Structure formats: C-alpha cells, structure tokens
C-alpha cells in the first residue's frame, strides 16, 4: 500500500515538473499525434508524448476533458495544428497554450464553453485560424484574443452571444474574418469594428438583428463580404467608404420591404453577388432592384420553389401610393403580409459581371 502511494506520488511529481504547478488537464486521455494514437496524462508536450518525431497534427476529440488548464499544451516548436473538438471543455484558463511558436490552427468546436476569459488565447505568434463554433459561449472578456499577430479568422458561430465588442481583440492586426452566425445578436452598434481595420469578411447570418447603425462599419475600407441572411432587418442603411469594395452582400430572409437607390448605387462598384430572396419586397421596389441589376450589365439568376408551389415574390401597400417604392411602416401593408415569405427556400440573386 505504501509502495503504491509512493509510486503515485512520484508520478504526480513528474507530471508537475513536466506540466507546471496547476491542475492537470488530461488524465489517461486518448490523443492522436500525426495520426498515431496514445494515451496521455497531465499536459501535451514533447516530455509527455511517446511520439518523438516532428509533430504536425494533434487531435483529442470526443473525450472527457473538462478544462484546459494552464500549460495544457506547451513547448511544441514545430509547425502544427490542434483539434480539441467534441469534448466537454467548459473553460480555457489563461496560459493554456504556452510556448507554441508555430501553432497555426486551433479547433475547439462542439464543446461546452460558455465564457472566454482574458488571455485565453495570447502570445501565439503563428496562430492563423481559431474555431470556437458550436459551443455555449455567452460572454467574451476584453483581450480574450491577445497578441496574435497572424490571426486572420475567428469562427464564433452557433453560440449564445447577445453582443459583439471589438475590445475582445488586442494586437490582432491581421484579422480579416469574423463569423458570428447563429447567435442572439440584436443590433450592430456604431463603429463596431473601428479598431479592427483589416476586417474584410463578416458573417451575421441567423441572428435576431433588427438595427444596424449607419456607421457600424466605419473604418472598414476593405470589406468585401457581408452576410446578413436570416435576421429581422426592414431596410439597409449603412455608410460605406467610397468606392465600395463589397463583392458579396446577402440580405436574404429578413423583413425587408425597401432599399434606397442611394444604397444600391453605393454598393455597385465591386459587387459580384447580391442575394435578396425571402423578403417581402414592395413590388415597385422589387422592380426597381431588377432594373438596377440589369443596368449593371449583370446576369439575373432565379431559382424558383418547386413548380407546383405558389410563388409570391413581392407585395403591394394598401395605401393610395402603392405604386411608389418608398420606405413604409408595417401599418401600410395588409396584416400578416410577410408570412408568405417565411421559411421559403427560393433563392433570388444577381451576379454582376
């Protein structure tokens, strides 16, 4: 009995020396290193791995890993990526990733993360892509993403976020894409990305967005892709740095009845794809958008619902000036006018050559 306790004490001492003084992250956990399986306890590092070659890929998925504690991954000097998906990870402690100069991708999707604390991801000089989708994230603290000079893409889709704040990011000069789809965002505030001027691609699909401040995207001079699909917008009024570099705009399946000529013209310079189906457009506005698209020397593509389905493509106001494309309140339409468009799968797009 004493001998067994002594052995256990020595094992724990060894892990402590190898992994630091904090609690262990892994306990006889199955991992794959370059496709080869082994079990590990404590942390993942060259000292604890049986694999002794050049590491290019580490995967630990569908295991019972609750927290990523300080030093969970450390001291791997080769270029590699790590997948930690499908576990039960609830928390990433500050300093979970230590001395990983060539780590370029972290995949943490499909866990149980609810909070991203300050310094969860910091001092990773080669990190390029970070996947945090399909978790339960409700809150991200300031500087959660800190000193990541090559970080270009962060995926935060399918979480429970109710707001976005650029102070989550600090010293991330290469950040070009953020995916916030399938959260619970209700608005996009003024200058929401002002301190992130490298942003080019933004995805807000499948939220509850009703309002976008006209200066929400101020400072984004190179934005090229904006996805607002499946929200609650009634119109689109945003200021775009001229000349616009937006190439793709998706506003499908909102509550949009109107968009101004000025907005369309502001979008024109680089636009290649605009997706507008599933909205209760006023018929005069629908016709005006069609004319605008054709005048842009474009190619009109319409994928209809199945042939036997009744296809409603636009609505008329019940007011005397129903033949004008003007911004209107819901009271100016028949009650329930937008229900014809709910859940439709038809796609209406213009590609502009």
Automatic annotation (TrEMBL):
GO cellular component, one term: plasma membrane
PANTHER family tied to this protein: ANTIGEN BSP, PUTATIVE-RELATED (PTHR24369), CHAOPTIN-RELATED (PTHR24369:SF210)
Coiled-coil parts of chain: none
Gene3D superfamilies hit by this protein: Ribonuclease Inhibitor (3.80.10.10)
Protein name from the UniProt record: LRRCT domain-containing protein
Pfam families in UniProt: LRR_8
Leader peptide range in chain numbering: 1-16
Alphabetical UniProt keywords: Leucine-rich repeat, Repeat, Signal
